[in-house]
Amino acid sequence: MSDKRRRQNQRAGGGHKRRRPHKHLYLVLDDWEKGFSIHKIDADRFHSDSDSDSDSDYQHLPEPPALRLEPPVSGEPYCDVSFATLGTKIFAFMNQRCGLAYDAETGVLSMGAHAPAQMVCGYGISIAVGDVLYVLTYRYDFDRQHPHSFEAMSSAPTAPEERQHPTEGWTWKTLPPPAFHSCVHSYALHPDGRTIFMTSSYDTDKMGTYSFDTKDSTWRFHGNWVLPFSGQGHFDAELDAWVGLDQYGYICSCPVISPSFQCTAPCFYPDCKMTEEKIFAKRHMRATLTYMGATKFCLVDCVNNRSRDAYEIRLTMFGLKYSYKGELQITDHRSTCSFMVSRHTYHFVPLAFWM
What we know:
- Residues 1-22, 47-73 are annotated as: Disordered.
- The chain is mainly beta.
- It has one helix at 3-11, and strands spanning 25-32, 35-41, 67-69, 81-86, 89-94, 98-103, 109-114, 123-129, 132-138, 148-155, 170-174, 184-189, 195-201, 207-213, 218-223, 230-236, 241-245, 251-254, 273-274, 284-293, 296-304, 310-322, 328-330, 335-342, 351-354.
- The chain has an eight-stranded mixed β-sheet with strand order 15-14-13-12-16-17-18-19, with no helix packed on it. Strands 20, 21, 22, 23 and 24 form a five-stranded antiparallel β-sheet that branches.
- A hairpin with a 5-residue loop joins strand 22 (310-322) and strand 23.
- The protein starts with a helix and ends with a strand.
């Protein structure tokens, strides 16, 4: 094809590239007296502020929220809501109820899959692997003989005659439970796209790291050592490492462990790096780390405000890099937004999703 013909096709739309959708930060809060709100935040509008605690520094969340969710009546036994993401959807799972799926790309709210009965009355972790959502629930107080529920949710093709039933396309599969008997302390998806690593305690005072192969549905014990971060770790290709938040408020990075690796040495982890400065705010209640791609992260920090009915949410966006000495550093272009929000569910931890 000649250059002239190619340019004509491009002007006619034949060579037009589809623009990538602009991503946003979706913040899930219990700031509504009747339930939960999902706020859609444009990260490009963040601005740096000082560390002052004055009310004038607080910003306002976008109004109205992208979605408000009213769960079943509070008097229902063990009524709770958990949130997870898969693709462009944010799922809300409610005890003994059909789940809901909010599509961040289209703004459509639809009926999702009914959570399995063994998932209720517990707490745990969820992680998307490809187009499958894996949920590991710890429910020791309700079933001490079988403390874990391990389930996988995926979307199955729906026959044309069944499309009037919106939940037919979602299915749950029960997976082999882990050998450990406690909640998960830290976890991360391996860059092979199939192996989930988890650290937990398998005895009264012994910690160990396990992995689950999502292709073969098999568990593997890797030894009496722990992943060096708390909560979820995120793989960053530029750093070629897992990145996470440690329990003292530092950011750490560590090499990815091979799925075949085993080590009997306790507390072993090679070449773990940590930032010199803490990133936690003062008087924090709980902090979580959200990965935004390309070595960019957002810290969601819940700060006590001396009130059971309100707290401060601080969103801190930052980048990471290695110095010429190989040290892990937070880049200078860090920005923070602070919001004072109502609090209606004492045990709920605010979540942020980058979609």
